Structures are given as C-alpha cells and as structure tokens.
Amino acid sequence: MEKPLIAPSILSADFSRLGEEVRAVESAGADWIHVDVMDGHFVPNLTIGPPVISAIRKYSTLPFDVHLMIARPERYVEDFVAAGADWLVVHVEASVHVHRVIQQIRKAGARPGVAVNPGTPISAIEPLLDDVDMVLVMSVNPGFGGQSFIPSVVRKIEVLRKWIKERGREVLIEVDGGVNEKTIPVLANYDVDVYVAGTAVFAGGDYAGNISRLRKAAAGFRGRLLNQADSCDMD
C-alpha cells in the first residue's frame, strides 16, 4: 500500500447517482472510498446505512473506509461488514466499551479504526493503539461536509505519530475535515497516511484533476520529510 492515500468522501457526491460517482472517483485515481455514516444522534445529521453500502459496493473494487458517526456502534458492526466495509472506524466518544467494539470489528472480518473529535484529548486514544489499525483524527466537528479545518488538531497528530513510532506498529493516521490543497501541506508535515477529502474532490466535476492535485501536494511534502529523515539517519 503506497502512501499517502486519497480517500474521497462520498458525503460530497451526487446522491442521486451514487454508484456512478463511486465508479467515477475510482477511475479518477482514488485509493479508497470513504463512507460517512451518521445517525442523527451522535451527530446532527442522517446519511446512509448498510443497504446503501451494499448497493454501491458493486461499483468499485477499492477498499471501503466506513466511518461510523453513530451512537452505540456495536449494534451494527456485523451489518456494515457484511455490506462491504473493509475498514470500520468507530468514535472513542460513541461507545462505553470501545475495546470490545474494536475486537468485534476484527472478528467480523474488517480492519478496525478509532476516531477522535477535535474537542476530545488525544490521550483518549493511547490505550487503544495496540488494538487498532488506524486512527482517524477529525479536523472538523463531525456531522456536515464542507467545514473549515481546525488548525489545533495538528498537535494531536504530532503526539499520535510519536506514540505509534514508540510502539513500532503499523497504525495509519487518517485526517478528515477541511482537507484540501491548502491544508494538506500543513498535515503532511506530521506524516499523515490517509487524506479524506469531500468537497476538494467532488467540486467542479474534475475528479481526476482534483485527486491529482491533492496527491501531488501530499506526496511532495511527504517526500521532503522522508529526505530529511534520511539525512538525519546519516549524521
């Protein structure tokens, strides 16, 4: 898996032709498909459930990165995995027994991730790092697309990357919220692995061009970081 990865969020797609939109962004060069699931309780919006995911699954061979912004996600883990989720991300704030939900996701056959809201201390994630394959750092308050990036979250990413390196585990860092050509260079300084982009991919209809520009912004800065790391190793 070559990183960084671009994961278009279909929350910004045309829902009247969702299957075709998924197929289009795959053809345009997307790495993953990011699916935002909202229940109107944990976040103030409603989106889609397992039947819609199952319906669009046949339009793409890419990994489906399903982000559950729902209360008590343990009730639906098996349904979402059966519908086609390859990655299933739950919020640390959404379940009393988060460790148990993570184990439930892995047992069901998906790769588990945990998400953290901007207002939640990153320390809430540390006890989970030995059990998850990805941490999703929300750079907006979840519930709506098209919001502005919250700059203070970069400190969380910095701390998170340090903890992951200390453990020697392959845990991906994903960022969702206000990701675009202007914010990616900031995020790339903290070695982000997966960029979720909605408006930045779907706006204007030039999906291939939009994804290419995001990828270049991310890869360019990551390359600079890797070169710096190599220089440090040689000293």
From TrEMBL:
Cofactor: binding comment: Binds 1 divalent metal cation per subunit.
Gene Ontology CC: cytoplasm
InterPro entries (UniProt xref): Aldolase_TIM, Ribul_P_3_epim, Ribul_P_3_epim-like, RibuloseP-bd_barrel
Residues annotated as catalytic: D36, D176
Reactions it catalyzes: D-ribulose 5-phosphate = D-xylulose 5-phosphate
Example GO BP: pentose-phosphate shunt
GO terms, molecular function: D-ribulose-phosphate 3-epimerase activity; metal ion binding
UniProt: substrate binding residues: S9, H67, G143, F144, G145, G146, D176, G177, G178, G198, T199
Cofactor(s) named in the record: Zn(2+); Fe(2+); a divalent metal cation; Mn(2+)
SUPFAM superfamilies on file: Ribulose-phoshate binding barrel (SSF51366)
Enzyme class: isomerase
Annotated binding of a divalent metal cation, by residue: H34, D36, H67, D176
Entry keyword set: Carbohydrate metabolism, Cobalt, Isomerase, Manganese, Metal-binding, Zinc
The protein's Enzyme Commission number: 5.1.3.1
Family: Belongs to the ribulose-phosphate 3-epimerase family.
Protein name (Swiss-Prot/TrEMBL): Ribulose-phosphate 3-epimerase
Species of the source: Thermodesulforhabdus norvegica
